[in-house]
Amino acid sequence: MSITVEIIICAFLLMGGLFVLLGSFGLLRLPDFYTRLHAPTKATTLGLAGLLIGSMIYFFVAEQRLVVHELLITLFLLITAPVSAHMMAKSALHHRVKMVKHTQGQQLANTARKRQPPPSDGA
Amino acid sequence: MLSTTIIIVSTLICISLIMNLLRLLRGPDLPDRILALDTLYINSIGLILLFGLYKGSALYFESALLIAMLGFVSTAAICKYLLRGDIIE
């Protein structure tokens, strides 16, 4: 394996590891649940995509064949992360989890809890 | 160089696993704990991928794919249980 390919793989792996670390740090340190929801569902998905691309390049170069499993895992995570985030936000709304004081549009939480459309301004 | 990088990245992922565990133990509400479990399984997929890279075998992707699927199903089931008080109505 040439040194250039190795450097590219290492860069992808390091980027992925740093983003995964960032997501977990956000999960630990952000103030309330709704802000905490952002860190793992965005940063961790990006980090895992970095790891998967790195390993895809490695197996493509080392074994001279196209490995599609990584793409499958990446696609699956990209599809399922927003869905599970939405479900967790719904259950948090349902359980009346506290928000930070500066959250905008807090009155909308009630209508979302009762599964109604937001009130329209006109008419 | 590659094996050194793999060890460094595994260390980073292990640190993030410990952070998730702290949130899982501390989490003031139930959705926090669900979120911590969700992040735990996603990070463990990364760790398994790195182990497969270290061994140089493509066998471990099957387990990563399995964990991804079952983890999503379990997260959806727990959220559904919290929302409705029942999993299959």
TrEMBL record, chain A:
Keywords: Membrane, Transmembrane, Transmembrane helix. The chain crosses the membrane at residues 6-31, 43-61, 67-89. Residues 104-123 are annotated as: Disordered. GO terms for molecular function: sodium:proton antiporter activity. InterPro entries: PhaG_MnhG_YufB (IPR005133). Pfam families: PhaG_MnhG_YufB. This is Na(+) H(+) antiporter subunit G.
UniProtKB/TrEMBL annotation, chain B:
It is a multi-pass membrane protein. Pfam families: MrpF_PhaF (PF04066). One of its GO terms (molecular function) is sodium:proton antiporter activity. Keywords: Antiport, Cell membrane, Ion transport, Membrane, Transmembrane, Transmembrane helix, Transport. The chain crosses the membrane at residues 6-22, 34-54, 60-83. InterPro entries: MrpF/PhaF-like. It is found in: Cell membrane. One of its GO terms (cellular component) is plasma membrane. Belongs to the CPA3 antiporters (TC 2.A.63) subunit F family. PANTHER family: NA(+)/H(+) ANTIPORTER SUBUNIT F1, NA(+)_H(+) ANTIPORTER SUBUNIT F. This is Na(+) H(+) antiporter subunit F.
